[in-house]
Amino acid sequence: MYIDSHCHLHLRDLAKRQAEILERMEDNQVSHALCVCISLEDFPQALKLAEKKPNIHTTVGVHPNPQGVEEPTVEKIVALTQHPKVVAIGETGLDYYRVKPKQKWQMDRFRIQIRASRIAGKPLVIHTRNAAEDTIRILQEEGAGIDKGGYAGVMHCFNENLAIARAALDMGFYISFSGILTYPASKELRKVAGYVPLDRLLIETDSPWLTPQAYRGQTNEPTYVLEVAKQLAAVRGMTIDKIGQITAENYFRLFGIQPAIV
Ligand SMILES: [Zn+2]
Ligand SMILES: [Zn+2]
Fold first, then answer.
1. Which of 196-226 are b and which e, b meaning 16 or more Cβ less than 10 Å from the residue's Cβ?
2. Taking ligand 2, which is a single-atom ion, which protein residues have CB atoms under 5 Å away?
3. What is the CATH number of domain 2-255?
4. How far apart are CA 66 and CA 176, in angstroms?
């Protein structure tokens, strides 16, 4: 059993080929996926898919990058998390790669969703790019983390150093690795993947983006999470089956999901 803990099945090319992609997941033992929302505008499509498929869950939140979209409020996010198929808040965080660093609107958007997570009692799906220090600082300032009565979550598509991994783990976060782990240049990242405690590891595709090395040039999809599992198995000296099992258990625990019979 393998689980894609972060994909965007409701967006772009994946939305158009949804039936075929879901079938391929089933054929390859990719039993569940978290279809992550990036704005309040695309949330209804993600929820529709999650309502239709017992093995697909979703999130509600606003990604740090899009501009000209509806800004979240604590009340609205908390209200939308009441749906049983909405298991987390996000993806949210900071991104200084696509947007000029330290924009107040981006930080405010992030803080609001951390507050919503504390009130709703749902974990956060964190996106951070070129902004790791500020991401950790804001999470700490807003009291994210299981030891402070808040709720932790997952650092998705992890591509940071060991010090950042440690800071996130200390707050109770899980660390999710994507196809980046399979790229030849990701030597340092593979070392970090060797350090993360087994009960905090997740795997994901972030499809349609970040296609693993073996399929580069093609659109990414949840089935390719097997490539991430394979790489992680090599790093940890474990079988791919065992990695699948461990990351599945972690997924169910973090998001409070009962495994679906599909
Ligand atoms: Zn992301
Ligand atoms: Zn994403």
1. beeebbbbbbbbbebbbeeeeeeebbbbbbb
2. 206
3. 3.20.20.140
4. 23
R_g of the chain, CA atoms, integer Å: 17
Distance 140 CA to ligand 2 centre (A): 22
pTM: 0.97
**DSSP letters spanning 116-180:** HHHHHT--EEEEEES-HHHHHHHHHHTT-SGGGTS--EEETT----HHHHHHHHHTT-EEEE-GG
Helix 187-195 × helix 225-236 angle, to 10°? 70
**Phi, psi of 54, deg, nearest 5:** -60, -25
Q: Phi and psi dihedrals of 41, rounded to 5? A: -70, -35
- The DSSP bridge partners found for residue 124 are 89, 153
CA of residue 127 to ligand 1 center, whole Å: 4
Q: Which ligand is nearest to the CA of 129?
A: 1
Supply 135's token pair: 């991401």
Q: Can you tell me the distance from the alpha carbon of 25 to that of 40, in angstroms, rounded to the nearest whole number?
A: 27
Tens digit of each residue's pLDDT (9 = 90 or more) over 219-243: 999 999 999 999 999 999 999 999 9
Cα–Cα dist 125/11, whole Å: 18
Contacts of 181 (CB under 8 A, 6+ apart): 189, 190, 193, 228, 231, 232, 235
Task: Write out pLDDT tens, residues 49-78.
Answer: 999 999 999 999 999 999 999 999 999 999
For residue 127, the ligand closest to its alpha carbon is: 1
Collect residues with CB below 5 Å from ion ligand 1. 91, 127
- Copy the structure tokens of residue 82: 């009441």
